[in-house]
């Protein structure tokens, strides 16, 4: 299994769009799936994507924009596929 690095923007614009909630939801899903050893969560300052909808999230080198409500879908669609 690969070790995946997920970076969540905690810059002011993403903070307002719910980056804290995105982080909380990701933490909960990671522990639910017992993936603590496989996934590293990091915070980052503004990644220059403030104009997009949702919180800027970087998985390895790919960028996504994730709203809190979409976090679980994002986890299942993007994260789980990269873990396998
Ligand atoms: S604050 Fe997150 S991309 Fe700018």
From TrEMBL:
Lineage: Bacteria, Bacillati, Bacillota, Clostridia, Eubacteriales
Alphabetized SUPFAM superfamilies for the sequence: Thioredoxin-like
Protein name per the record: NAD(P)H-dependent oxidoreductase subunit E
InterPro entries named among the record's database cross-references: Thioredoxin-like_sf
